[in-house]
Write a structure and sequence with these properties.
The chain has 235 residues and is an alpha/beta fold. The chain is built from nine helices and nine strands. It starts with a strand and ends in a 14-residue tail after the last helix. It binds 3-(1~{H}-indol-6-yl)-1~{H}-pyrazol-5-amine.
Length: 235
């Protein structure tokens, strides 16, 4: 799986990509992440990438030319044209179903904005798939693109050490239940003990206990997950 990230701040991504699971996946050749600085496609001596909005108003808008020309330059850098994803608060709200959909691609181009957002003609010309990571406002698309890379990469075969740990996580597949409570040593800490059932070794009993835990937690904390096709907890 190849990711191309188009951003004005590649440094924001570098640190994260150089750590832990993602770093290992890159080293193993399971995923490839290429960073592209949109400013490299800015015009003029001063390489200006933002400008004031027509019609007035606060803040600046990301100019159309550097964005369109950056995408057009990056596309031919691999065999596969890939799917262009633009991270904005206006997009389809990300959930595990969409993560699975993105993981089925061989290449993703992740377009990150800054300032007050993109010139509308970016959408008209490039027709990107617009995705939001949630209903809150970030300073730019970079953190959102990391969320996509992180969530998609762990679905790429071989990225997780234990393939089973994937299926059992919350929201994967059709079982929309929260994870059950987990414990490790010590058996007692500051008077808080591990439930007796987990220490007994009766695997059928443990399975039933965990399932009941999951259902109880989901009922108490995320009842919206028990209702169908709704990706919003506010109800
Ligand atoms: C550019 N502000 C790009 C995306 N889900 C979500 N929240 N906020 C964003 C986002 C905010 C931005 C830009 C300027 C994405």
């Amino acid at each position: 799986m190849r990711f191309d990230v188009l951003t004005l701040f590649p440094g924001i991504l570098e640190g994260y990509l150089g750590q832990s699971l993602i770093k290992l996946a890159i080293e193993r050749g399971l995923i490839d992440v290429k960073l592209h600085d949109i400013r490299d496609w800015a015009h003029g001596k001063h390489r200006v990438v933002d400008d004031r909005p027509f019609g007035g108003g606060p803040g600046m808008v990301l100019k159309v030319e550097p964005v369109v020309e950056c995408v057009e330059a990056v596309r031919p850098m691999a065999d596969e044209p890939g799917r262009l994803v633009m991270l904005t608060p206006q997009g389809r709200k990300l959930d595990q179903r969409i993560v699975e959909e993105l993981a089925a691609e061989r290449r993703l181009l992740l377009l990150c904005g800054r300032y007050e957002g993109f010139d509308e003609r970016v959408r008209e010309i490039l027709e990107p798939d617009e995705i939001s990571i949630g209903d809150y406002i970030l300073g730019g698309g970079e953190v959102a693109s990391l969320v996509i890379i992180d969530a998609v990469a762990r679905l790429v075969p071989g990225v997780l050490g234990d393939e089973l740990s994937n299926r059992q996580d919350s929201f994967s597949g059709s079982e929309r239940l929260l994870e059950f409570a987990q414990y490790t040593r010590p058996r007692e800490y500051r008077g808080h003990t591990v439930p007796e059932v987990l220490l007994g070794g009766n695997h059928e009993e443990i399975s039933r206990w965990r399932d009941e835990q999951s259902r109880q937690r989901t009922r108490e904390q995320r009842a919206d997950l028990l209702r169908e096709d709704k990706n919003d907890r506010a109800q």
